[in-house]
Amino acid sequence: xxxxxxxxxxxxxxxxxxxxxxxxxxxxxxxxxxxxxxxxxxxxxxxxxxxxxxxxxxxxxxxxxxxxxxxxxxxxxxxxxxxxxxxxxxxxx
Length: 93
Description:
single chain; mainly beta; 6-stranded antiparallel beta sheet; 6 strands; 0% helix; globular
């Protein structure tokens, strides 16, 4: 690691054994633009045009993670009116 990198701990319990398995990008109108799933060579990347609700006027990005202690979370970035918002939702796997 260098000074520009940081280890991501679980936002629920702080466990440093975390995994990011899914990433989704949605268009402003709610159409799912791209979805990547998996954490090894068998990862799936799909581009779909299915409707998925999206709020705001620009694209959104969601990153889905979990820790080895059993917690799950979603980090989301949403752009609207010249601002970018970050949100975090927590749950358990």
